[in-house]
Structure formats: C-alpha cells, structure tokens
C-alpha cells in the first residue's frame, strides 16, 4: 500500500509514555493503514521513544516531536499537513483500535466522514478485555444531521459523559481540502466537536455504523476531563461562529444555541470556582454580581455541586458502555 492510498492514523500525544505503545501497535495492525503519525506535543516523559519502540519495521510510523506544547487541535493539524494518505483517522494516545476496525467502514459507500461505535472501558478492565465480547452490531448505517449531532453533545447532569463529539471517524482529506477545514487551534476542548459540526454544516455526509471498532479508555487523568473556564468560553465562541455558516436550517440553529448556552453557563461556573480558589469567596461573589442576570443559574450550579458533595450516593459498578445505544 502506498502513501497515496489508505488511511493515515493520527495520534496526538502528551506525556503518554504509559499508553502510546498500545495505541501505535493497534494502528499498525490495521491492513488499511498507510501511515501512523504520532505528534509528541512537547512531552516531558518518554512518549517519543516509547512510540518509536513500537515500530513494526513497515516504514509506516513517523514520530513528529514538537519543541513546545501546541495543544491537541494544532497537533492534529501538524499531522494532517505532514501526511499524504487520502483518509484520516484520529486515535487518542490512551485509546486503541480493535482488530479489523477499518474494513467494514471502507466497504460502506456514500460518506465524507464515517464513525463506528465506541466502547468506553475503565482502565482497570483493559487488560482483561476480550474484543470478541464487545458489541458488533449489524444495524444499517445512519446519516447524521447537524441538529442531531449538536444535540447529541449536550451533556445530561448525573449521567456519564457520552457526547457524539467523542466519535473518531474516518474523514476524507478531499472534503477538508475542498472546504478549507482544519481543527480550530484556539480550542483545547471540543476541537473534534467543532470540526465535525463544520463538516455537517458544509453538507458533508457523516455516517455512523453500529459496529464497535474503537476503545476509549476511561482514565481519571485524561485531558478530556480537565476543563478550564477559558477552554469552555472558547468552545462557546466556536458555537457562535458556527451560527454564521450559510444554509443552516432552524433546527440546527436551535441546537447550536442550546449547546452554546450550556457551554457558556459551564464557563461562568468554572470561572467562579477558579476565582474563589485563587482570590477567595468575596472576590468571586463580587465579580459574579457584576452580571446579575447570570447569578441564578450560577447559584443553581453551586447548590447542585454542594448537594452532590453531601449526597454522593452509592458508587456504580464500573463496566463497559457504548456511545451509541
């Protein structure tokens, strides 16, 4: 297989020494993969060396070391620009691909992006995981609408996170090039969501299939669980920019506004908590009172957090769960 055919698997990595070998090995095991590009985002551990040690000698692996930390969106763009394969697939450095993942996706016609089901597996269960036991559903492919996708990224309090932005599709490079799309480098949260939403807004055919081919390892230290106020505010701003896309229907606009409003509320809550931690409660309250209309939802969020701290409930047993029902 030449570099001008097949899939480029892009693995952005930061301090992923403990998991990068598993990720790289799972990508190199896929026959349809022409390139595996690891972008070491200025790690302070042995990520780059561990990734290099996972090479299978096929000449498909490259490790691109960044001199400074540029963030996950920029790291993805570095790999896109450095690759030549016509199809692109993202693999997070703590996740891995299941054997035979890509063949069913490539056999499905009529897509600009296509995503299979994703299994969330607790870190302590990975070693005992038997891929054959995972859900390999056979339901027909479904085409996502922009409204459905955005609504599928609105989190529900008290439920495990399972937003559609977690999907890891195969994307046609030609579609990104035709529409001038890249990952938004201002985002360090929701960069996948923002790109997928714009693919849909530009008329891209985005299919989902029921078969599970990707394992997302749930780790307490994962970057997706670390949300700064500025990260949330930037994601809300991305939604506002998305509303400027031409040709959006009313259902898409309503969905985007809902997502923006929820994200903006989370940003205000996060900023309040950060200020309280840094400058004390009086300073945080004084800042909040500068915008009185924002106080009720902020007070509700604080009260909810207090209630959860005092009533944590019985811990739920950790188990494998899926992104698609």
Q: What number is the mean pLDDT?
A: 87
Structural class: alpha/beta
Unreliable residue runs: none
- Whole-number total of structural domains: 2
Tally of helical segments: 11
**CATH topology (fold) name of the largest domain:** Spore Coat Polysaccharide Biosynthesis Protein SpsA, Chain A
Q: Tell me the distance between the termini.
A: 35 Å
Q: Please tally the β strands and state the result.
A: 10
Over the alpha carbons, how many angstroms does the gyration radius reach? Answer: 20 Å
Sketch the major β-sheet. Answer: 10 strands, mixed
Question: What is the molecular shape?
Answer: globular
Protein name: Glycosyltransferase
Keywords: Transferase
Domain Glycosyltransferase 2-like: 8-107
GO molecular function: transferase activity
Please give a handful of descriptors for the protein shown.
325 residues, alpha/beta, Spore Coat Polysaccharide Biosynthesis Protein SpsA, Chain A, 2 domains, ten-stranded mixed β-sheet, 11 helices, 10 strands, 17% strand, globular
Describe the structure.
The chain has 325 residues and is an alpha/beta fold. It has two domains: 218 residues, Spore Coat Polysaccharide Biosynthesis Protein SpsA, Chain A, CATH 3.90.550; 82 residues, no CATH class. The chain contains eleven helices and ten strands. Strands 1, 2, 3, 4, 5, 6, 7, 8, 9 and 10 form a ten-stranded mixed β-sheet that branches. Strand 1, helix 1 and strand 2 form a beta-alpha-beta unit. Helix 7 runs parallel beside helix 8, helix 9 runs antiparallel to helix 10 and helix 9 packs across helix 11. The two termini are 35 Å apart. The mean pLDDT is 87. GO terms for molecular function: transferase activity. Keywords: Transferase. Pfam families: Glycos_transf_2.
């Amino acid at each position: 297989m030449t570099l001008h055919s097949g899939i480029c698997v892009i693995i952005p990595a930061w301090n992923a020494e403990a998991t990068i070998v598993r990720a790289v090995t799972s990508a190199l095991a896929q026959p349809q993969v022409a390139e595996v590009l690891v972008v070491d985002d200025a790690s302070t551990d042995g990520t780059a060396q561990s990734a290099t040690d996972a090479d299978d000698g096929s000449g498909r692996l490259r490790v691109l070391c960044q001199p400074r930390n540029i963030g996950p969106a920029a790291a993805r763009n570095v790999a896109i620009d450095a690759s030549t394969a016509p199809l692109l697939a993202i693999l997070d450095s703590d996740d891995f691909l299941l054997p035979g993942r890509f063949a069913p996706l490539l056999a499905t016609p009529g897509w600009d992006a296509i995503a299979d089901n994703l299994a969330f597996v607790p870190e302590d269960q990975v070693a005992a995981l038997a891929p054959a036991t995972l859900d390999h559903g056979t339901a027909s492919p479904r085409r996502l609408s922009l409204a459905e996708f955005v609504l599928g990224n609105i989190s529900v309090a008290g439920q495990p996170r399972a937003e559609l932005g977690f999907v890891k599709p195969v994307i046609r490079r030609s579609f990104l090039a035709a529409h001038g799309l890249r990952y938004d480098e201002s985002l360090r949260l929701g960069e996948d969501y923002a790109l997928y939403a714009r693919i849909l807004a530009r008329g891209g055919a985005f299919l989902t299939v029921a078969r599970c081919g990707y394992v997302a390892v749930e780790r307490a230290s994962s970057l997706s669980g670390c949300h700064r106020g500025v990260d949330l505010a930037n994601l809300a701003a991305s939604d506002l920019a998305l509303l400027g896309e031409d040709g959006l229907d009313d259902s898409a606009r309503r969905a985007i506004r809902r997502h923006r409003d929820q994200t903006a509320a989370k940003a205000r809550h996060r900023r309040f908590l950060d200020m309280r931690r840094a400058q004390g409660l009086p300073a945080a309250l004084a800042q909040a009172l500068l915008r009185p209309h924002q106080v009720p939802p902020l007070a509700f969020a604080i009260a909810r957090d207090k209630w959860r701290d005092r009533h944590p409930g019985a811990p739920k047993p950790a188990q494998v769960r899926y992104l698609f029902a």
